[in-house]
Amino acid sequence: MKALGMALVGATLVLTASPVEAAPNHQSITWTDAGHCDPVNDKVTCETAELRLPVDHARPWAETFELHVARRKATGARIGVLMVNPGGPGDPGSRLAFQAVRNYSPEVLERFDIIAFDPRGVGASRGIRCSADLLARMPMTSPANQSELDQLIAYNRELREDCRKHSGPVVDHADTVSVARDMDALRRALGERTISYFGHSYGSLIGQQYAELFPRRVRAMTISANMDHSLGIREFVASSAATAEDSFTSFTQWCARTESCALHGQDVAAVWERVLAKADRGVPDPDRPGATLRTPELIWRTIGKFKGPDWPGQARLLATIDAQPAPPAHGFAAGAATESGQTREFSFAATFCEDWRFRVTEYREFARLAEIQRAAAPRMRGLPPGRDPVALCAGWPSAPNNPQHVLRLDGAPRILMINARHDPVSAYSWAVNVHRQTRGTTVLLTYDGWGHAVYQRNDCTRSAVDRYLIDQKLPVADTHCPANPV
């Protein structure tokens, strides 16, 4: 198979609240003291709880799981609850209650209980676990023909069955609509008539679909680094690749004008190509002594640094690898093999493949998608295979529970969308398109800078979000906040 990175991260379906919404839930939450939220920075007590919910909301009498929830109570005149989610998919959310002082302003923490939870299939909420040795064999290259694509499809199906064996039917119900229904069950258990919500990255999709299903249960909602769940597969991979390439271009421009850049005065694109050539063979990892760094991990780590952005750190990483001697043709030895019987959590595919109709089975289409990505992101090689939904979902054996559709927010209150103009992961075009779909309901605030998270960038972004969440006063349409110096 030839090496190829692909994109990170249908039918029209209008979702409306079904009879499932009204399913009885007489549970209440029993909280357990979890000590100081942060022993150093936050002496407020955090609490945790478990809420038993059906794996399949259409069959509430069948198998259940426990949703792990954490709370940091408001310290002042309480407005209500602010449910929060960090994205992923696959990131545990309960930690956000314990990290609240780092993520939300003092004004927000004074007025809201921060309610954070691990979404179904993640962390302490029946985290989806799969055989570690099978995950270690995940293909890191792209099929070069139909036979190799068939091998990838066979692997994906084996992986899904393995994860199901270790985790149960939650693998079949890890979609975002199910997470939204879990949120409303949590709202009822908390005794709240409405909720406020702050969702980031993939958490924006949770917010979008909650507002679509339960519009009258939303008091206020801020969604950041937005997903666009209306995109077809070609539009998705093209925009995913292009937004990463945009960040790479911005990095090279910064390095050219910044004397403190470790690569200042050099052809950064040429350095990048030399480093990629080394990583194709495997190089000693500068950040993990004894470990080997290969191309997919290098690209993913680069995107991680662009999220900040940490351009100085990215330049130092490339300079360090570029200075190393060229690896031998066979590459450095890979890390130690896992022991038989070990498992590790892997929920990304289960969620993404139930949310998106990415079921490529024909090599012609697969190759066309690779071509689209290469054209959009020649330097970034598309994006790393280990986080590529097109490869992960190839031949997924069932139709998605929650396929793409145009967002409908009939009956919802005004919602605040925030997005960076240069986001390496969530393309700005996604936010613009979601706003167009919901123009009567959403207001889009643009941060004219770089990075993935927007809320705490500067006074402009922070005050706009705080004023909306607390006082329900939105910024004027098409507000732009200036970029911070990088």
From TrEMBL:
Q: Does the keyword Signal apply?
A: yes
Q: Which residues cross the membrane?
A: none
Domain Peptidase S33 tripeptidyl aminopeptidase-like C-terminal, by residue range, is: 391-481
Identification of the protein by name: Alpha/beta hydrolase fold
One Gene Ontology molecular-function label: hydrolase activity
Record Gene3D superfamilies: alpha/beta hydrolase
Which family would the database say this protein is a member of? Belongs to the peptidase S33 family.
- Check the record and name the InterPro entries matching this protein: AB_hydrolase_1, AB_hydrolase_fold, Pept_S33_TAP-like_C, Serine_prot/Carboxylest_S33
AB hydrolase-1 domain boundaries: 81-277
Residues spanning the signal sequence = 1-22
Q: Which UniProt keywords apply?
A: Hydrolase, Signal
